[in-house]
Amino acid sequence: MSVTSLPETSRPPATAAPHPGHALVIGAAGFALCSLALGLSTVGAMNAAGSSIILSGTFFYGGIVQLVAGFFALAAGATFAAAFLTAYGAFWLAYTAIQVWVVPHIVATVLSAAGTAAPSPALQAQAGHDVVQALGVFLITWLVVTLIFTVASLGTNAVTLLAFILLAVTIVLLIVAYLGASAAGAPVSGALHGAGWAEIVLAAVAFYIVLAELANETLQRPLFPLFPLRRADRAVAQPA
């Protein structure tokens, strides 16, 4: 029995494969927002009481949203994006936990060791010093993670590489500020403010990545270049 092929006009139209979304854009937006808020707090644009409002962003947008975006990137096979998003999503969750639970726990432990109802100023200073020293050690571990991502970003684009370099600089300055704190627990002000400004610049670069990825996709042209570092990617990025 012969099989008669259907004419082209009677065949059902082919369904185009859906364009995969970029989970990196979603997570990068959360990272940028939290970096800007924390940078403004660090340089003194907000007082200590007002800075606590940042924790809502670090928990939900920087933490949960970025972590979920990382899992979607992992499912899509984007290893670098998945590793970055899950790692720093966990970082922002850890930052929130430190501010809400860990720091008060350290202070309470040091003050309760005296066994007096009214701790002395020296004991209060010791509690503050212990907190900043612990923060410095905590950031050393994240500096190692960030340096790994910085090296890996050499295979992405110049803007992403710049973002990781700025993040590494920010962490180094914070480590200097915290580990060099005075006996009263006051961080080194110059290094601390330098870290805040570096974080603000980092946020601007991260926001640019979000803008470039979104606008270039919706406008269907590379209006905001990211400057690919790999030769093959540079060839693809060239307009036809």
Keywords:
about 240 residues, 7 helices, about 0% strand, elongated, disordered N terminus
Poorly predicted regions: 1-20
The total of helices stands at 7
Secondary-structure element string: HHHHHHH
Shape: elongated
How is the main sheet built? none
Q: What's the gyration radius in Å?
A: 24 Å
Instruction: State the domain count.
Output: 1
Q: How much is the average pLDDT?
A: 86
Structure description:
The chain is mainly alpha-helical. It has one domain. 70% of the residues lie in helices and 0% in strands. It contains seven helices and no strands. It has helices at 23-42, 54-75, 79-112, 121-152, 158-179, 189-219, 231-237. α1 (23-42) packs antiparallel against α6 (189-219), α3 packs antiparallel against α4 and α5 packs antiparallel against α6. The longest helix has 34 residues, at 79-112. The protein is elongated. The termini are far apart. The model is unreliable at 1-20 (pLDDT under 50).
Question: What's a concise summary of this model?
Answer:
About 70% of the residues lie in helices and about 0% in strands. With about 240 residues, it is an all-alpha fold.
List the helices and strands and how they pair.
Layout: H1 23-42, H2 54-75, H3 79-112, H4 121-152, H5 158-179, H6 189-219, H7 231-237
